[in-house]
Amino acid sequence: MGEGGLSERVGEVREKVLNWLKEEGLSPEEMEDPNAYFNFNVNVGGRTFNVVQNVLSLDSIQVAATAVFTPEQLTLLKNKMNKKKRKEYFWDLTLTLVKNSDLGDFDIKPDPPDDVREVLVCSRKIFYDALTKHKLLHAIHSAYKAYMMVIWMLERFAEQPFPKEKKRALFAA
């Protein structure tokens, strides 16, 4: 496929994805990204996720989000958990994320268990020939659940009380 054909196809997919995100009330905002054909920020449950087609992916898109630990969460990691408990948390988190067949990739950064500030989660790629609104929303939902699992497992390992507010509602703002 020539460069013009690729641009046209990417443009069609971009418009289709943008329309689906708007239809679902996810307030897509296009971001400048030199590494992407398109990159939409969407709000899911008060958190920012990206629906992106990387320039290295000629015919697929992904959903990604980075859970950046808040100062309170970093305090839980450092003050409520000893090194053994932090190691257990990151082992359990890693194994749980690996078992999640809806995820394509994840990255715990920068140096677990001693220095961690964020966890990146990505959906599996959705190839153009399988791209439907259902698959896109499933990928967003799966990435959201993985993101929340990072936070909830932290709270559990830090022996925090079970949340009483509606933190469990998946697409509630």
SSE layout:
Blueprint: H1 3-23, E1 29-30, E2 36-44, E3 47-54, E4 60-68, H2 71-80, H3 83-99, E5 103-111, E6 115-123, E7 126-127, H4 133-157
Antiparallel strand pairs: 1-2, 2-3, 3-4, 4-6, 4-7, 5-6
Structure description:
The protein is α+β, with helices and mostly antiparallel strands and 173 residues long. The chain has one domain: Yope Regulator, Chain: A, CATH 3.30.1460.10. It contains 4 helices and 7 strands; from the N terminus they run αββββααβββα. Strand 5 (103-111) and strand 6 (115-123) form a beta hairpin. Helix 3 (83-99) runs antiparallel to helix 4. It is elongated, with a radius of gyration of 18 Å.
Summary, kept brief:
This protein has 173 residues and is an alpha+beta fold.
The helix/strand order is HEEEEHHEEEH
Number of helices: 4
Mean pLDDT: 92
State the domain count. 1
Q: What is the CATH top level name?
A: Alpha Beta
Distance between the termini: 41 Å
Helices and strands: which structural class?
Answer: alpha+beta
The helical percent reads 40-55%
* Count of individual beta strands: 7
